[in-house]
Protein 1
Amino acid sequence: MQDRRPAPLNVVPEDATGTTWALPEGAIARFGKGDISDVKLSLDGTYFAVATGVGLWWYDVSSMSPISLWKTERGLISSVDFSHDGKWIVISNWDQVIKVLDVQTGECVYQIEGQSAFAHIAFSSNGKWIATADMSGIVKVLDVQRGVCLAQMDRGIHEWQPNDISQLEFLPDGRLLAATAQNPKIYSPDDQVLNPDTEGYQTYVWHPETGEVVVKFAGRNFAFSSDSRLLAGAAADETLNDANRIDRCVSVWDVTTGKRIAHFTGHSDWVDAVAFSRCGQFLASSDGTLREWDLETGAQRAVYPDFDDPFYSKEGTLYTLVFPHDTDTTEIWNVENREKMFEMSYGIGGAEFTKSLAIAYTQRQFQESTEKRSSEQVDGNIPVYAMLREPRFPLPDPQAIWVDDQTLASKSLGRGIIVWDVSRKRVRETLMEDEFIHSFTVLPSGKMLASSAVFLDDTAKVWDVDYPDTPIVEFRANIWWERQEVFSPTGGYLAVGSNDGSVYVWNLDHPEHPIVLTGHTDYIYALAFSPDGKRLVTGSDDKTARLWDIEADQEISTLPMDEPRIPIGVAFSPCGKIIAGGMDDEIRLWCADQLTTLRIMSQPENSRRTYALAFSPCGEYLASGTWWQRGMEKMAIRLWDVATGENIHTFWGHNSDVQSLAFSPDGTLLASSSFEGTILLWDVKSFIDS
């Protein structure tokens, strides 16, 4: 196969990490590569493409370093796939635009608008068709050259069709299209099933030009034989009814006839993977125990306990992926010899991409590069391959907070708090790595507090991050824990907004009996404490903003508005004298003492809805960030003169909603975090007098 090196677009030669690639004007760094939606390895195993909220990142496998960044004008790429000759790559974005790009030039060859492939996208082997799966579980086949829909795949009539396509692939010869649809039960708030026609997991095989069903069975995790004649998948145990369904069997179908030719019943638990041998004579399946089947005789050929995800090499050797508990590694074993071949650290793309790399390695497509990068040996001869582990943030808000003028902290996707070295534009360390952090704050003293996520037992914990072994307080939080949560600047209180409008405030010295502030009647969008921690302002979906006295445990007043509006962002000025509220079409400044309107800053028509707000340390300036609206390519971050209401500068940068803003303590830098999965740092010293 021809080596098609991706066009090196937006590369900054002196920056090997990509932190400064394709930065918007005024930004000095980007932390994070964007929320990852899809990862695909090139067919020659040399490069891989990562679909993110920033755009399409390309990485070199041998170095695990970025080599290009494409399509940043709107970003928010949802899915990606390669053509079978490796010449093209197809991407879909959140704006329902599908583009076919030339890998070597980055140029758009074909563009199809008005078609969503949010869940999955797949190229046919003939290069003529693209299959898509959207948010509603609708699968279509598009003609690449004409940009038209050839067929919508028949799934029968269902009242509810959620985003439930978990696998979408053309058969190797491109004649047919297969997908697994979950069609899960959907419940009402009072636990009633809303979609009684649910079927659970179903695997379909369709004719791509007509959408007609060729094969349908209750099952998932399908795989094809290399000659495109057979399809196998985990299948329902037919001795159980739907309510007790377990996919612990394996069915094999001849897709040329639409007939099931084999049904294996040896597994005792859910079958999580199946794989055909290259010769098509054998099939491997696993439920934690790996079993190999002879398709000609229908007999079980071998059993291998404690092996998981199987795959075959071109030569017919059976391998498996093993995921040891409480580790971040994946082991690749030769099954028959029970020999561990190599290890890979768990990283970008999860288990599916790890398997793609493992298969490529066993086919010796990048053995040389792996040997060069192997940093250690296990048992003296087992190579360890270091997977890429990019810092990632939880959706929708990375929650960036300044520690000092050169140090920024943010939540991490999964566990811990990432600490960034701003001058070096890189990660300094990760704190609280063993905890799922829900929110954190940096107090004026420099002490950092963090709250852990709440799970089924509704237990909340608050930590002094300098002492991670033991929480400083632990208490029951018997509410549905919503995203809106804030510590008081003094560190004495933790306030949480619920979805019914109640606001819970815990005194961290005496958390047994929280204050419950009632008055709002709908979801709490925003909370902000006054600098002294004695008052709390809240914004709700009930179209009111309210001010509360925490010590008196009562509402002070509803803040005045000309007409009902939803305050989706609130902030106190550093002196505590001004409250800012961001709404659909305006930013309103209130006097915190007199509770009167001081000023109204109207928002431009094309970027009106304001969510994120932050006052500069001096209190003379206000930064605001907008939510995405249709037609917007980049989000606005505006700097306002508080005294005059003048918009003194506007930055344009993020591809999606600006979720939070924070000035550095010296007022020279502004950090903005976005739904796209990045934090941008902006130089503001030339616009404000800090």
Protein 2
Amino acid sequence: MNRSSFFTAVLMAALLSNPLMAQVNMKPPSAKKVPKVLKIHGYELVDNYAWLRDRNEKKAPEIIKYLEDENAYTEAHMGKHKGFVEDLYKEMLGRIKQTDISVPYKLGEYWYFNKTQEGKQYPSYYRSRSKDGADAELLLDQNKMAEGFKYFAISSFEPSDDGMMLAFATDTTGYRQYTLQIKDLKTGKILPDRLERVTSVEWSPDGKFLFYSQEDAVSKRTDKIFKHKIGGKGEDELIFDEKDVYFNVGVGRSRDKKMYFIGSFAKTSAEYHYLPANAVEDGKFSVLAPRREGHEYEADFNNGEFFIRTNKDAENFKVMRVSQADPSEEYWKDFIPHNPEVKIEGINFFKDFAVVSELENGLEYLRVMDMKTRRASARIETPESVYTMGMSFNPEYDTSVIRYGYSSMITPQSTYEFDLRTRKSSLIKQQEIPSGYDKTKYETTRVWAEARDGVKVPISLMMRKGTKLDGKSPMLLYAYGSYGASMTPNFSTSRISLVDRGMIYAITHIRGGSELGERWRQEGRMFKKMNTFNDFVDSSRWLINNKYTSADRLVIQGGSAGGLLMGAVLNQAPDLYKAAIVEVPFVDVMNTMLDETLPLTTEEWIEWGNPNEKKAWDYMIQYSPYENIKAMDYPNMLVEISLNDSQVPYWEGAKYVARLRELKTDDNIILLKTNMGAGHGGSSGRYDRLKETAFTYGYALTQVGITD
């Protein structure tokens, strides 16, 4: 160690041991400026911080040091609250049943379930021939598998039809790049087969081979489907190669196991190919309906017929049916006609029944249909006016009992069994809160804010009963607003730590999501994207004007595309907010969407626009957070990024912070916190994730003066 670095280390240790001194005297790291000029469509943009993405062998150490310096600054600034954050963590941990068993699900001759044990970061995977798990067989011990890794995730947990083999995939970096392996459950041995970058997998009926989808090593676009022979030493057979850069592919199978599907998906169109299970050895996939722009559809198979959820002449989707004998689109007939008031989110088929997932006026419903007796369909009853519900994992086809999940902002996550014949629900498991929880102390409601164009925007709220709406309550306001993703008012044990301290928790369901149907999604994408940001700002103003909170008590939060939301909102109306939590933020929109080599870029052109085209550039540049940072006052911010993030690269948030510090005109604090061993979703271990939540919520609380 040279004298300079030794001095730095000693100084840093001193600062970290005296957080108050660090907060007062420690200056934020200063990113050097290396101007890079972009000339396009008559614009000339100077990017001083483009160098932060250049992690080549020569520059990587400098970038890592900069991110570590930022972490040290963040820790120093938050140092005086370290005890409070630790208390929050212990409080949140006390609400989790650390040793627990998941609700088992039946697949073939076995019941599959997970176990968690106190002190262990990950679950273990089991199965049993009995529902009570009396003869449980350990399949995967994720804790043992994770030894030596900072990050470890499992996906694609797929037993073969006879239950003798298990395909599973692992990621050890957080980059969401999964390696598929196969375990022989008769011998307990891992086979030598290793398939890289796998995103979906399906077994053949006899377990001799499997279909899998693979993503490109650079772009991460899933573009190929292969057929792999178990134990085979030759090259895997390429079944499908998706050339269109707007599309990703995946492989699936109907619940009755009689039909395989390859789905190609873009943001506004789809195409399905199918292959009967009795022809998988040598058969070829056939197209169901050729792709065309604007036609979104999903296909399933049941009792000799294809069922297609489609937006053909149906903005909120309908379900059509057609015989397997000739499934040409000209023969499709309505099964569930279009209802403009109700969006059909999906449909699940069982031997004699179907369950339709519906969305109406911002609320989710499950509708049960009797395919055998033609008894009138009916929705499963819901006990609250603001809630979330959806199908649980139900892999068995020949069943008259299904499971669904239900919760609200004040009702813990609950798993119900529903008898499809008697149409009665029974609670089989509800999330336990060991430290205690009294639902009657809280209330949840939904209000409607008016946006500047007169549109009503729903907001879900959770607060302590008796909270006075006098403008003095602190609030954490969350939103997302992209890709048609609905932000449901679900339950979180961690949020209780906010609400118990007088904070109101709110979700504003802005345009760009699907909470109010397909039009809600379409009104917040492409050349209507500004509605998303305006809705959030107008929701904020409405909440302030109606005394739910005030500008000096309002903290906002969003991640990924919700981080883009935060950046655009803070450029538009920074005076409305005390602080912002900006997580893995997509804020460097123009540079990212011009770079076709980055993950997601080409397929996202249909969501945001392709800035290589002047019309798209002219619209997108209006809201792109990085380019629109101005010389003005901004609120305090905590920006959180991950070094191995494949969805939104770390440098977007790092560049954003550097430019904010360069241009802002106030003395407010901008913090950058980098997870150096994880990806887009943060840490993989449950205790590590909870510590991250405690830190983030600790930041939100201290920003409004709550420190115990």
Protein 3
Amino acid sequence: MNRTFAWTVILLSLFYSNISSAQTAEIKPFDTATNENAASDRLYADAIKERVLNNDKEAEILLLRFLNAKPNVAAAYYELARINSRANNVEKAQQQIKRALVLDSDNKWYQEFYGNLLAAKNEYLTAADIFAKLAAKYKPNEDYLLKSALLYQRGGKNIKAIGQLEEVIKQRGLDEEVVIQISQLYVKDKNIEGAGNALHRLIDANPKEGRYYALLAELYDNNKMPEKAKGIYEEGERKFPNDISLQLGLASFYKRKKDEKNYSLYVNKAISNKNLDEQTQLTLLVSYLQETEKDSMSKVNGLVLTEQLVKAHPFNASILGIYGDLLSFNNRPQESIAAYKKSLSLDSGNINVWQQLLFNYTDKPSADSLILFSEKALTLFPSQAILYYLNGIGHINKGELTQGIKAITTAIDFQPEDNKPLLAEMYSSLGDAYNSNKDFKNADANFDKSLNINPSNATVLNNYAYYLSVRGTRLDDAEQFSKKSLELRPGEATFLDTYGWIFYQQGKYQKAKELIQQAIEKNGKDTDATLFEHLGDIYYKLNEIDKAVLYWQKAKEKEPLNEEIDKKIKNRKL
């Protein structure tokens, strides 16, 4: 908890809880009470009884009748003030407590109640003076000192507040929370040296505590005195090289200075600190990784740190899960898979780890593993859309299109609509599956749904356009889809190929040739057989048969087992 906040909450609870719950006053004997008017005195007793029973209206009526008979009894005005305070009638309560004080100015309960009323009306300094006087007069007085200190602070009289807190220290001893509050009050008064001197008292009184050096250094750093802060940090580190507060403080110090090298150095020291429990180490590691998310070198460093934590805590499932993430990021998929599996063997209830494991199996050769582990995950999380989706991808990769379509359809049923990007991806994958299954009507319907959700998904636009062009249908739509995909991702080789092939299907061979050639140039040595074959087909249509055969032969080199290309080469025609 924030120290200032904690101290303020404690003090506020001393007098803002409920003013009307103040103690019953020390009542002097009624000077007017005699046997002749004992009936009026019974009114007072009955009034107190009704107030205790929370029957405030009846109590107020009885007290007013009592005061009509005996108008100079301070306690009755005090009780009326309490009733009106409880009813949030602060003005009336204030008038009544003032009358009680006129009649009995020495009664500390009346003074305290009046001070609380003033504080509730934001009359901080007047209230603070009342509590300061009470502190000077009565012992024990720590509550009064703390109340007056907070009220002086609220009223902008920081030095007076410090004086009251110093009195608390005289009675209590050098209390850390009080000293820190004194330091903060000096800061508010723009006296950084005074704030530093206050914290120095903690260092002097606790020579074996490194964290006070960190507090002092942080004070100077927060107040634009970085060199002084650095000196304090270095002094503290020399004396306490393994102090976690100093390591964390130095990490924050260098982070603010954008000194990534030293920031990483002290984060490493902190996370590896053996005096830190493993949950805190894990929290620090996650924070560090999030802060350096876009820095690949920090991810490498994070991997080294995580390996150290894995060695120190080999049975912590969360650390192993993070270790798997970092191994995956650093292109070590098999080790990543092993880390995820071990994490899940220790805690199978972490769906994020299940997802990360499954993502490692989304390539076609791993289809069986994707199906197997997604089914295991679904026994634990039977309503998780992402698991059905990945299961469907596994079946599609294996060529089991019907099962894949069924799984992805179930995923869409479970998928909340608030995650539109994932929902659009699911519809797109379903479109791919239906297209492979020659169910073109459902394929197009799902591509349309995907684009309705995300009309700027360049990959979906390209794939949809390509499928239409291969089928030779809706070529105008295909052309618009392809054109838009290239506007979103200019120069993408695959997209150029699609755009060129659409022009081929439209009989615009010269334009088709230009686009396919651009795609080949973009791909260079990585150009696949399809592009060479397409260019060969275009040259054939342009009546340049030798060039057509040349490019079919290049396609053959890339794909030696393609019998269709063999026929084209042998027959020198489509």
